[in-house]
């Protein structure tokens, strides 16, 4: 297989696997997750083989013709950054699919769930591999759609539906910002492909619209990566099944914003605005999420809040932008993906095997779940940042990036130490509280989970530890090409190994661990205080979203009632008023009143046709009956067809004649169901209003035609149709050839609209029930007596019918609805 096809298969293989997932589930129900996991595993192995090529400074780029007329290619680009993200997505995704197959074993919709997961994986892979910005936007939006399907998988619960809608709305708003930013970047730098922009050395830092473009991309990234104040959708996404949470929080969806910021660093970075905004937002998000995590007792919610904090940390490091900060960002991204996926899967195991995720109800599980306990310890020490895990190296690098700077660096260092300490406390809580102490009383008797659920956390935990023993290879093959791709220049990464007591960075790590241990020790008191602060009266961000959506729905309802009132007359009036404005205002604004042409001398037969057209028009306006109006309209159309024929357009004349005949026949047939002898009544005010609008539209069309006729004639289009109508379409009737061949799809659409309208009219006419004529004369009653009799008949209809029934009279039965819970009883 060629390289182009192989990369294309990597991008789209998950989508094909998603289409086959339900069939695979039916065929191999017990092992469906394991079978489908072969797809991301194969992708991971293939991408692993590209590490050497990319590390040598030879990024892979392929392109396929997409829309050549617009210069758009479906292009994919694999450098260090794209390869690191793609390996993380496919590697973690392999374990997630194996875990999901066991976690939801026996679920009737497991096949559908696995299909959603694979599509979600494919969207994220396409996002990080796409080089064309429009393709990146397409995959970006696809991650929002697939995440919506995954979060709302248990759609019977209102909380799941609300969380899915919330995530979709917020991330889609960011997607619109991304589209606008991509279009603006292309217009300013002249390329759709990000690799072409970087190769040309294009940056937007000196552009006058830099801040606008910057905020567009930041809005997209912040909404996707749950940055403050757009962070609130992420904890609510916990309504999704645990495999979704494990995948979404570690390697997909929320990391898309981080990837976008990293990818745009060479184009938008190295400016005070970039550094100031990213460091401020990232630092606030880090502390917000870290404190919010210690307020929770649900393991999944605690992990969700730590994800917000970790995303803020990644954004903070990208904002700093130094070589050391970017190296720390890459290491932390990989470490976070490994331990966060493992901890979420562990939270699912605990819930699956005990029936609860409440930390206050759990304890003593280390003997009941020994493998899960080992996996938890391995993931927790990486989250805490203990050596020799990747988490330790990332923490050392980020402290080194800010050590010894000015007051801004000291402030940033304090934020990092406090945030890492709180995250370490959360890791200690999750690793110790459920497993140590006495065995808690849980809804289910705890026991070890199946191997398919434990293998993922164990493998990811072991991997986070083993990477610390292969730092030279990790520096050369992963860190250097990835950080170089982010910075846009060559960076030689070297992780600092060994423990030197004289190294001040080590003492900062010790301070972090000490603060984390203190927060763990005082967790109960700290949690109580944080909950009291969160319970203070005020508008939360989550509640603010509900208020926004409620106001949006109310506004939509008000606009609907205002514009969609059901009065066809007003609809037509608004349409024609806007049409008149669209015709007249541009002409007046651009060229003023057009010059009136000299009228040619008309021959007698030409004057007769013009008079016939005017007579038909006047007859339509003053017709007394509908039938006469239809015939007058046909006469006016016939005069137009004759004008076409007299002035050298017989084909168009013939087409116009056929249309007029069919219009008259169809209108007459339709009107046979109506009263053709009645004239539509219209008040004087309405007649003046409608006449004025009609005159304005007529004046507008005349002005536009005069402007067009005042321009030099360009016969290229006429020559084209005259020449190729016979050569290509084999037709001599040019008008028909244009309608059938050159505008075939347009004509098909018009025919479809007419057919649908005709069917609708026919259905409406048939729905009218014609009442049979009653020859019995109707006596006139006074309204009061008639109303009294009607009320009496409704209240007691059976009182009068009963004597007739006893006398043997044949009276029709009245059908009555039985009383029941839906009808509300007899009173309904």
UniProtKB/TrEMBL annotation:
Cellular component GO terms, alphabetical: plasma membrane
Localization terms from the record: Cell membrane; Membrane
Protein keywords: Antiport, Cell membrane, Ion transport, Membrane, Transmembrane, Transmembrane helix, Transport
Keyword Transmembrane (UniProt): yes
GO MF, one annotated term: antiporter activity
A GO biological process held by the record: monoatomic ion transport
Bias type Basic residues, positions: 778-787
Domain MrpA C-terminal/MbhD as annotated: residue spans: 611-674
Record-annotated NADH-Ubiquinone oxidoreductase (complex I) chain 5 N-terminal domain positions: 67-113
Domain NADH:quinone oxidoreductase/Mrp antiporter transmembrane: 130-413
Pfam families associated with the record: MbhD, MbhE, Proton_antipo_M, Proton_antipo_N
Signal peptide: none
Transmembrane segments: 6-24, 31-54, 74-101, 113-130, 136-153, 165-184, 204-223, 244-262, 274-294, 301-320, 326-350, 371-390, 410-431, 451-471, 505-523, 570-590, 602-622, 627-647, 653-671, 692-713, 747-765
Coiled coil: none
Domain of life: Bacteria
Name listed for the protein in its UniProt record: DUF4040 domain-containing protein
Organism (species): Arsenicitalea aurantiaca
């Amino acid at each position: 297989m060629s390289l182009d096809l192989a990369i294309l298969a990597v991008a789209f293989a998950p989508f094909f696997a998603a289409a086959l997932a339900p069939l695979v589930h039916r065929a191999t129900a017990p092992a469906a997750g394991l079978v489908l996991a072969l797809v991301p595993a194969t992708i991971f192995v293939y991408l692993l083989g590209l590490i050497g090529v990319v590390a040598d400074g030879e990024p892979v780029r392929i392109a396929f013709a997409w829309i050549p007329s617009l210069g758009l290619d479906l292009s994919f680009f694999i450098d260090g950054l794209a390869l690191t993200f793609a390996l993380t997505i496919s590697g973690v995704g392999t374990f997630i699919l194996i875990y999901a197959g066991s976690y939801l074993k026996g679920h009737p919709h497991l096949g559908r769930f696995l299909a959603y997961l694979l599509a979600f994986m494919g969207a994220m892979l396409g996002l990080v591999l796409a080089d064309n910005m429009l393709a990146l936007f397409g995959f970006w939006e696809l991650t929002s759609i697939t995440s919506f399907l995954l979060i709302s998988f248990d759609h019977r619960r209102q909380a799941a539906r609300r969380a899915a809608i919330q995530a979709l709305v917020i991330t889609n708003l960011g997607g619109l910002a991304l589209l606008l930013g991509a279009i603006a970047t292309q217009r300013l730098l002249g390329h759709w492909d990000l690799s072409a922009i970087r190769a040309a050395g294009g940056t937007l830092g000196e552009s006058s619209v830099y801040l606008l473009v910057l905020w567009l991309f930041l809005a997209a990234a912040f909404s996707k990566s749950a940055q403050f104040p757009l962070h609130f959708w992420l904890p609510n996404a916990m309504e999704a099944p645990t495999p979704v949470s494990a995948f979404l929080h570690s390697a997909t969806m929320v990391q898309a914003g981080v990837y976008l910021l990293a990818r745009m660093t060479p184009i938008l970075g190295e400016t005070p605005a970039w550094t100031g905004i990213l460091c401020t937002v990232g630092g606030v998000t880090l502390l917000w999420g870290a404190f919010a995590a210690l307020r929770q007792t649900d393991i999944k919610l605690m992990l969700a809040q730590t994800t917000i904090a970790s995303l803020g940390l990644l954004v903070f490091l990208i904002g700093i932008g130094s070589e050391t900060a970017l190296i720390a960002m890459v290491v932390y991204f990989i470490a976070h993906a490994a331990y966060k996926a493992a901890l979420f899967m562990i939270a699912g195991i605990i819930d699956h095997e005990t029936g609860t995720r409440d930390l206050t109800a759990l304890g003593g599980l280390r003997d009941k779940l020994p493998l899960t306990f080992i996996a938890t310890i391995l993931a927790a020490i990486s989250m805490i940042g203990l050596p020799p895990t990747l988490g330790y190296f990332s923490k050392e690098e980020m402290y080194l990036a800010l050590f010894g700077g000015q007051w801004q660096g000291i402030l940033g260092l304090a934020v990092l130490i406090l945030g890492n300490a709180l995250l370490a406390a959360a890791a200690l809580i999750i690793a110790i509280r459920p497993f140590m102490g006495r065995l808690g009383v849980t809804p289910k008797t705890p026991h070890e989970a199946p191997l398919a659920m434990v293998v993922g956390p164990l493998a990811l935990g072991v991997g986070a530890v083993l990477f610390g023993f292969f730092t030279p290879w990790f520096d050369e093959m992963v860190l250097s090409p990835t950080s170089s791709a982010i910075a846009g220049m060559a960076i030689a990464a070297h992780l600092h190994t060994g423990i030197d007591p004289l190294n001040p960075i080590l003492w900062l790590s010790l301070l972090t661990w000490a603060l984390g241990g203190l927060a763990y020790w005082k967790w109960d008191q700290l949690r109580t205080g944080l909950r009291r602060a969160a319970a203070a009266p005020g508008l939360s961000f989550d509640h603010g979203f509900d208020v926004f959506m409620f106001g949006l729905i109310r506004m939509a309802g008000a606009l609907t009632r205002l514009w969609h009132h059901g009065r066809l007359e007003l609809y037509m009036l608004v349409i024609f008023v806007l049409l008149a404005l669209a015709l007249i205002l541009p002409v007046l604004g651009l060229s003023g009143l057009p010059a009136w042409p000299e009228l040619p001398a008309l021959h007698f037969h030409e004057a007769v046709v013009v008079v016939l057209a005017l007579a038909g028009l006047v007859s339509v306006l003053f017709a007394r009956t509908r039938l006469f109006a239809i015939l007058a309209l046909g006469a006016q159309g016939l005069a137009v067809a004759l004008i076409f024929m007299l002035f050298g357009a017989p084909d168009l004349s013939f087409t116009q004649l056929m249309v007029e005949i069919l219009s008259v026949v169809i209108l007459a047939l339709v009107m046979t169901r109506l009263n053709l002898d009645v004239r539509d009544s219209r008040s004087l005010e309405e007649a003046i209003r409608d006449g004025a609008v009609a005159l304005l539209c007529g004046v507008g069309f005349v002005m536009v035609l005069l402007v067009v006729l005042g321009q030099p004639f360009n016969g290229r289009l006429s020559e084209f149709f005259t020449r190729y109508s016979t050569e290509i379409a084999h037709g001599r009737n040019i008008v028909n050839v244009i309608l059938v061949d050159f505008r075939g799809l347009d004509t098909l659409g018009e025919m479809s609209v007419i057919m649908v309208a005709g069917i609708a009219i026919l259905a409406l006419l048939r729905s009218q029930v014609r009442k049979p004529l009653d020859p019995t004369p109707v006596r006139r009653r006074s309204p009061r007596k008639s109303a009294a009799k009607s009320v009496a008949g409704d209240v007691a209809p059976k009182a009068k019918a009963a004597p007739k029934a006893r006398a043997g009279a044949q009276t029709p039965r009245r059908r009555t609805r039985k009383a029941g819970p839906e009808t509300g009883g007899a009173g309904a």
